Amino acid sequence: MGTTTKYEYLKSIKPRYKKATKRQKKLILDEFCHTCNYNRKYAIRLLNSKPKPKIRTNLSKRGRKKQYDHPMIVNVLWDLWVTTNLPCSKRLKAIIPLWLPHFNKYILSEQVKQKLQRISPASIDRLIAPIRIKYNKRGKSTTKPGALLKKRIPIKTNQWDETISGFLEADTVAHCGNSVAGSFVYTINCVDIATGWTIQRAIWEKGEKGVVKAIADMENNLPFQIKGFDCDNGSEFLNWHLHKYLTNRKRPIQFTRSRAYHKNDNAHIEGKNWTHIRQYLGYQRFDKPELVNMLNQLYTTEWNLYFNCFIPSVKLMEKYREGSKTIKKHDSPKTPLQRLLDSNHIDQTVKNNLKNQFDQLNPFQLQKQMKQKIDAIIDLVNKA
Question: What would the DSSP string read from start to end of 191-229?
Answer without folding.
Answer: EETTT--EEEEEEETT-HHHHHHHHHHHHHTSSS---EE
